[in-house]
Structure formats: C-alpha cells, structure tokens
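Annotators were shown the component list below and the corresponding predicted structure, then asked to write short factual statements about the assembly.
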Amino acid sequence: MPHTYQYPRAALTVDCVVFGFDDGELKVLLIERALEPFKGQWALPGGFVRVDETLDDAARRELVEETGLKNVFLEQLYTFGEVYRDPRERVISVAWYALVKLSDHKAKAATDAANAEWFSVSKPPRLAFDHADIVAAAHARLQGKVRYQPIGFELLPAKFTLSELQHLYEAILATKLDKRNFRKKVLGFGLLLALKETRMAGRSRPAQLFRFAADKYEKLKKHGFNFEL
Amino acid sequence: MPHTYQYPRAALTVDCVVFGFDDGELKVLLIERALEPFKGQWALPGGFVRVDETLDDAARRELVEETGLKNVFLEQLYTFGEVYRDPRERVISVAWYALVKLSDHKAKAATDAANAEWFSVSKPPRLAFDHADIVAAAHARLQGKVRYQPIGFELLPAKFTLSELQHLYEAILATKLDKRNFRKKVLGFGLLLALKETRMAGRSRPAQLFRFAADKYEKLKKHGFNFEL
DNA sequence: TCAAAAGTGTTCTTGATACACCCATGC
DNA sequence: GCATGGGTGTATCAAGAACACTTTTGA
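Structure shown to annotators:
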C-alpha cells in the first residue's frame, strides 16, 4: 500500500561498523553490495529502518540478516545526513558500532547469504557511499572509549590471557604498551578473575587464563568507579 | 505536491538542548509549545528536517527560527528513535546540544516570537515527549566533554575572570574545586591570555580578565595536545 | 575598619614511567 | 639445549590533592 505525505521525506537507514580482533589486528566486517548503486563494492552492513521498529532493533535485525551476528555489543555512533551521500535520494543513516568476539562468530559470517569478509581496519578496501567516513568515526570512537570503559573484553573470547588483552589494546590504540605496567594496572582494578586453567600457545610457557568480572564492574560503576587504562 | 512512497516513512526532526551559564547556574533554553500535542508544555527547540538541508543546517535553522540564536557552538548528541516517542506518528529525532554565551544572547531569546525561557538544568519543568531524556543525555555529554575539551569557554563571555571559569566548571560538574589547584592547572596550559583589563564585581578586589587563545589551542590540538581538566 | 572576593606556594601523596631477568614448555 | 612467549619488582619522576593567609577595593 503506497503512503502519501504532504512534504517529501528522507529515507532512514542504519549502518553498522562491526569490529573484530583476530591475528593481532583490529578488523571490520564488510559486505559486498549485490545491487546498484556501488554494485560489487564493499559496504557496511545495514538497511532501511521499518516504521514499527526502534533504531537499535533495526540495527540488530540487519546484522542478523546480513551477517548472521546476534547478541553483540552495539552502541549508537553518529547520524550521517549529508544531502547527497546517497546518489538515489535523500537518505539519513544512523550509524552504530558493534564489537564481536570473532572467535565465536568467524565461521558464521563466512557462510551467510551475503558475501561478507573481515578486513583490516588499517587497510580497508574502497567503500561505497560515505562509509569510509563512518568507519573512521567508529574507529575514533572505539579508541576513545576503550580508555575509560572496559569494552575491550567484548572483542575477546570469554577466557583470555593478559598478553591477548594487551595485544588487543595495542592494536586498537596503535601503540606499544609496557608489559609489566599494563599487567600491574589492569590487575589492580580487581576485575579480572584468574581461572584454574592455562593456555598453551606454540612451544612456549603456558599462559594464565582470566575472565572479566562483568557483574563486579557493574556494581562498582554505580558507585562512580572508572575503568581508566 | 504530495509525495508517495512504497513503504511508510518516519518523520525526521532535530531537537536542540541549548545550554547557557548565568547566575552561577547551568541553564537550558526551552520553548512553550503553541500546538498540540503537549500544547502549553515546555519543550526543546526543534522541528522537521527539510529534504534538501543537512541535519546541522536544520538544527541551526530551527535555533534561529525559534530562539533567534545564531553562530553558536553546536554538536550532534544522539538520535532518539523509540517507536512511540511522539503520539502522532513515528518521529525520529536527531538531538543536538548547543553552548551559548548567555551574556550576548539573553535579551534576544526573550523578545522572540515563540515563548522561550531559560531554566535551571537541575530543576527543569515537566517536558514534552521524551525531551527530559534528551536533556539528561546532553547534560551527561557536557559533563564528560568539558573534562578533556576546552568547550567551557563557549558558555562564557569572550573576557572572563578565573573565578567565573571555575564557577562554570563547578556548576557543570556539580562539584567544588580548589581555587589554587584550578588556577595552577588551567594557567599551566598556556591557553589563557591575561588582558590589560580588570573587572570589578561588587565592593571587592578587581579581578584579572582573560581570554581563551582558541587559535593557539587549534595548533596544539593537531600535535596531539589534550586539554584535560 | 570591615566585608568580599582575588590572588598566591609548598608539602605530601599517588599514580605513571622506565627498565632486565628468570620461567615453563615444545621441538 | 634452545627458541618462544609468560611472568615478575623497584626506583624515579610527574601530577594531583590538601591546605591558610595577604591583597585590593567599595561601602
């Protein structure tokens, strides 16, 4: 059924910048466009917002439909509204960024209908629309946020070693960190629980596994605690 | 001319949380709604986005139309998209926050067409729609941002005293600050220029006037400088 | 001379940085 | 036994926090 309005209305979409961490690198998940415009080019997963769903429902729905991802950390980023950002017509895009435990989801994305691939954030392919700007904004947000909120854990498996955590921070912030200082600080928060397991990687000494005490963090947060790396 | 679309589309608006500082208090500018729904209630200045203007053009246009304010600091806050946030139909609102030098603009707002008034942020009136949530989000953003970006100056006249600056920070952050430490730190950045003037307030010792060296800050920022209060 | 806000330094404590060697394992 | 990454402590330095009195003006 067609719908009629007195004034022309912009179309409304959501686009998601999905970050993952693998191979010591920060990655972003892109899909290959099947339709014009920008057919065959890489773009962010996303699509039109239905009139009866919230923006974050729309973002989650598109993630499932286009990448098979669900139950991910998702946060609104920014709304992009340049007049000619879409060559077809006026389209406003509410951009989101998501953090996924790539270890859990790697297989899924590859087998889904749409052609989806992980790319290094530092050398992405040419992107459709203004999606390069959106990725840049998301990356900047992640770099800022990771310093004072324990969201890095969303990118790691539930059990991880301190070295993995450090390498994650080094990849996100694009810096080198001192091992001893990093461990001292991060353990000082008392939010990492040492498990009774270790992990062997290669032919080196096995590493202690930890998990993040999310429940404990939630309690502390209410009392004005700040996770500041 | 009416416009027809295959799928129903949400309407798109912008809403602005305009902050000012006066009388030692952080204030927010509200307008009284002339039409239903929420007729007679206080609400944020804002309105529909035209199909041929960017989101920030729309926000600036609405500010001029409804409050007479122009050339203000304006930054996107968040996009609110609950399905029933407007009782008439689906309306997505891209919210912005603005900082104004109240000293310059006080008169204007009062004489404009719409009934506009400044309210204390800490005791606002009942607000239309979800505007109370928007104000709360803007306040939280301001509290966060003011710590690491020199945006406080947008709320003060071009010439100000250190005490005024301190009281501004105290009002925004809702804390007391130590006078000597505050002055030491803020002068330490080298971004405040002492003018050759003083200001007399009441029957006390005249205070040194300063202005913010915005140009100097812009240069430093490019080299990774951080204004951290 | 009093009231009111402006202005000014030092000490102490805390957190940040810099830095080098031994350990457990697989090959 | 050697290569690989895991694990550990101390000394220095910089920044933050706490704190009280003198100055200038108008009334």
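Statements collected:
1. The radius of gyration of chain A is 20 Å.
2. Residues 131-145 of chain A form the longest helix (15 residues).
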